[in-house]
Amino acid sequence: MAGGTGTRLWPASRELFPKQFMALAGESTMLAETAARLSGPLFADPVVLCNDEHRFIAAEQLRAAGISADAIILEPVGRNTAPAAAVAAFHLVGRDPEAVMLLAPADHVIADADGFRTGIETALPAARNGSLLTFGITPSRPETGYGYIERGGPADTPGVFGLTRFTEKPDAATAKTYIASGAHLWNSGIFLMRAATYLAELERLHPDILAAAREALAGADNDLDFLRLDGEAFGRSPNISIDYAVMEPTDKGAVVPLDVGWSDVGSWDALWEITDKDNAGNVIRGDVLAEGVRDSYLRSDAGLLAVVGLDDVVVVATDNAVLVAGKKASQDVRKIVDRLRKDGRPETVTHTTTYRPWGSFQNVDVGERYQVKRITVKPGGRLSLQKHARRAEHWVVVSGTATVTRGEDIMELKANQSTYIPIGMAHRLENKGAETLHLVEVQSGDYLGEDDIVRLEDIYGRS
After folding, report:
1. Are 223 and 176 in contact (CB under 8 A)?
2. What CA dihedral angle connects 179, 185, 189 and 195, to 10 degrees?
3. Which own/partner contact pairs does 306-315 have at CB distance under 8 Å and 24+ positions apart?
4. pLDDT, tens digit, for every residue of 395-425?
5. How far apart are CA 441 and CA 443, in angstroms?
6. Among 127, 180, 240, 460, which has the highest number of CB atoms less than 10 A from its own CB?
């Protein structure tokens, strides 16, 4: 499940490039690490559910990790985990009526992957016998940022326990009582069950979710490597999590306790907690100078960041935003995001770099009637054949070889060569070489918005 937006990790995480597609806790992206963790003889190829806007990012990251997806299903609107799980269950039951479904968010960290797989094997017999299982994490502290599960007595399957109740994120005093009880576990949001069992419980508890998911999948269209759900049908589903819709009211619930170094990386504080630190307790990423700083998370994705004389802070600098926060207040970053959204600010949506199926572009400078971009086209990448009604473009190749369609002409440009695209002229840029293509684009005109594109032909199926 890769459809979240990761607002509490702003400004690194944005709507068009959220945390699951970033390498926050390791060398690989969180999606790639999750898919790798759930690969091997125990698993079939993964079914990935993500937002339409992220489809090419998800596909490229799986390809780069050498993982073949059974399907990449595109959610036209966000409707939380219960409808997403229903779509996945219908998809799997169509392949195998006895399929066992593991629902795993793409943005979690699990340090002990072998231990996690052992927990799944422990839970499998109970899942095959009709239980709806969740995995509860043995708590290491009275955390107020997680939900809790109260476990019951041992079930018939060794290592599996009854499930007494779910509790939302508690206050600090309540969290301390939970830790003292020894009966409470953190709610991981990871579930294991027969797909058919889940659908049967939805039929009983939330037939409206079931109907919307069934119709959305029945009306889905194949789009290149993606399965695009019917938007109208999926939009009729209630917006509700699997916890509320099924796991809390069901009498089939069970829990498997795990101690595997799990984190949902839901805040900068949580990321600091799980990341290696220096002798002063600091996590430092990027070009950072720290003087007299302790127990802090310091990150720069753009330029030098200098921090002096502060303790227990989060400082994150990106190419167009800087966050400074008390580490204990990092759960409240979403309040800043809410204010930015209310004001219509673009900083919640995208960085200055925007990713496309062919590569990416970065906004370098913008002014009255002009805009400068750095464009990167990966080997084999091919932009759409397009034209613009209100802007002209100048292209200068920095490195690599560009194959340029310019009206009726096709030409090759190498480093330090350039061309000019007048307003209204059909044009295309592609990289037929083995080396990544880098060029600078200067746009000029009375309107420079990304919606001034008329696509005449596109290998990626974009309209």
Report:
1. no
2. -160
3. 314/268, 314/269, 314/272
4. 999 999 999 999 999 999 999 999 999 999 9
5. 6
6. 127
Distance of CA 302 to the CA centre of its chain: 22
Show the CA angle centred on residue 81, arms to residues 79 and 83, nearest 5°.
60
| Cα distance between residue 187 and residue 8, in whole Å | 18
**What is the average pLDDT score of the chain?**
95
Nearest CA-CA partner of 356 in 62, 55, 69: 55
In sequence order, the β-bridge partners of residue 361 are 354, 375
Report d(CA 104, CA 68) in Å as an integer: 17
- Tell me the H-state helices in 265-409: 268-274, 333-342
Instruction: Tell me: pLDDT of 372 over 80.
Output: yes
pTM: 0.90
Could you read off the pLDDT of 182-204 as tens digits, one per residue? 999 999 999 999 999 999 999 99
Q: What is the DSSP letter of 246?
A: I
pLDDT band at 331, cuts 50/70/90?
confident
Q: What whole-number distance in Å separates Cα of residue 104 and Cα of residue 191? A: 7
- The domains located in the chain, with CATH, are 7-263 (3.90.550.10), 271-341 (no CATH), 353-457 (2.60.120.10)
Query: What number of residues does the chain have?
Result: 463
Closest CA to 315 of 268, 364, 263: 268
How far apart CA 158 and CA 435 sit, in angstroms, is 54
